[in-house]
Amino acid sequence: METTQLAKQIASSLLQIGAVHLRPDQPFTWTSGIKSPIYCDNRVTMSYPAVRKQIADAFVRVIRERFPGAEVIAGTATAGIPHAAWVAERLELPMIYVRDKAKGHGRQNQIEGVLRPNQQVVVIEDLISTGGSSLKAAQAVQVEGGNVLGVAAIFSYQFPSAEALFAEAGIPVHTLSNYTALLEAAREQGVIDANQEQVLGLWKQDPHTFYPAN
User: Fold this and answer.
1) In the chain, N or C terminus with fewer CB closer than 10 Å?
2) pLDDT tens-digit map of 51-66
């Protein structure tokens, strides 16, 4: 299946199950403080077997085509963990998961599971916004001796700053769907009108200052 077609199909699924909400006239506030007309919660996909299968199948295809040397599948805590588990099961590969920081007790692990030196790892992420947390997880794998082939995520906001961050780190990124595909799917489903689509497009160009501060 063509990549753009798959991206739109997954975007459509995310909209249909309520994993993505669009509110251009009443923006959400992210943890980072950015005001956004979109909120994406891919944890919702866990509750929809057909959608999670669609995503897992797409991840498997991406890994086989782009990262055929993968030896370990790593999930980011917490939202990337279930998807990494389903993908690792299909590919019959070991799985690990990466915490956002090391535990403060016991062995103080940041990575759970078995990672051997120089193993080839693909990191599974649910969402890439600024890219910071995803890159941090990939670098944690590198610190523990793994060779990160790339990061694969369900959805990306396509911020140029995130793309530049991964490029600078030398870590390839591939996402199953993205902001462009989402807007196309939302328009076709009648979720947004032409004016709202324009607002959503303009926000992506300048997410930090598009909405005036209160």
Assistant:
1) C
2) 999 999 999 999 999 9
Dist CA 7 CA 9 (whole Å): 6
Q: How far apart are CA 186 and CA 179, in angstroms?
A: 10
- CB atoms inside a 10 Å sphere around CB 118: 10
What's the predicted TM-score (pTM) here?
0.94
Stated as kind and residue range, the H or E segment containing 22 is strand 20-22
The label of the residue with tokens 């994993």 reads 19
Q: Which pair of structure tokens corresponds to residue 103?
A: 């535990």
Structure tokens at 169: 């780190």
3-state class (DSSP) for residue 147: strand
Helices (H), the chain: 3-16, 49-66, 81-91, 132-143, 160-169, 179-189, 194-205
Residue 17 phi, psi (nearest 5) = -95, 0
